[in-house]
Amino acid sequence: MILLLHAFPLNSQMYSLLQQELYDAGEEICAPDYPGFGGQEETIESLDGYAQQLLKTLPEEGIVGLGLSMGGYLLMRLLDLAPERFRGAIFANTRMGQDTPEARQNRLNMAEKVLKEGVEFLPQAMLQGLIGKDAPEDIQDSVKTMILQASPEGVAAAQKAMADRPDSREVLSKLQIPVLVIAGSEDTLIPLEAMKDLAEVTKGKLVKLKTAHLSNLLDPEGFNGAVLDFLEELETTGE
Ligand code: MLT
């Protein structure tokens, strides 16, 4: 089974093209919307709390996890809690380290603001970081739509959960499974250096796409192709 973990503050629709390709390739897929996103009620209190909840619904073995950005943070917690259930991991546009104090404070500020004002200011505040300045209009529209489907409580809780996440370097250095790392060379939110570091620690294969942060939406051919090649390699090596 392939587990697709979405970015913040989007939802599982960001993987709709990939889901179609995986479905056509005969893969079993799980693509949850986190609490508070994609119309889901409730909120994420902590990444570990949500990871525990998710593990109750996932198979006991054979999972390939794919996480982009916040999805990567969540995948790191899942791999710490239940490494034996995974046979492969794909990290895209994400990082192992914790936030700087300034980044953490920005999250808490956003959490406070979104509870007061609602989610309407988020597209304007976040779009450029997520997809760059010159993304095609259809991508801008679909990212905006997904952001506006998040609830203020969900956004605030996710920011607090991310602010409290631990450093994952040690967890990742112990991984015994094949890893693919997908980076965007124009990602201003996650610098290429952080992705190179991640690939080195996990002994993963690094694929660089010429994109901003949401690399799967900005270069679906490159992203989905790398994912399908990785899955095929897992099959042929019997992992
Ligand atoms: C994401 O795309 O999930 C966010 O940029 C993650 C974050 O805020 O660190």
Summary keywords:
13% strand; 239 residues; AB_hydrolase_sf; alpha/beta; globular; Rossmann fold; hydrolase activity; Hydrolase; binds D-malate; hydrolase; AB_hydrolase_fold
Can you describe what's shown?
With 239 residues, the chain is α/β, with parallel strands linked by helices. It has a single domain, classed as 3-Layer(aba) Sandwich (Rossmann fold), CATH 3.40.50.1820. It has helices at residues 16-24, 47-55, 70-81, 101-117, 122-131, 137-148, 152-163, 169-173, 192-202, 215-218, 220-236; strands spanning 2-5, 29-30, 63-68, 86-92, 179-184, 205-209. Strands 2-1-3-4-5-6 form a 6-stranded parallel sheet, with helices on both faces. α2 (47-55) packs across α3, α4 (101-117) runs antiparallel to α7 (152-163) and α5 (122-131) packs across α6 (137-148). The mean pLDDT is 96. It binds D-malate. D-malate (MLT) is lined by residues 7-8, 69-70, 162, 189, 213.
Main β-sheet, spatial strand arrangement: 2-1-3-4-5-6
User: Which regions have little confidence, pLDDT < 50, spanning 5+ residues?
Assistant: none
CATH-assigned homologous superfamily:
Alpha/Beta hydrolase fold, catalytic domain
The computed structural class is alpha/beta
Strand proportion, as a percent range, falls in 5-15%
Q: What molecules are bound to this protein?
A: D-malate
CATH architecture: 3-Layer(aba) Sandwich
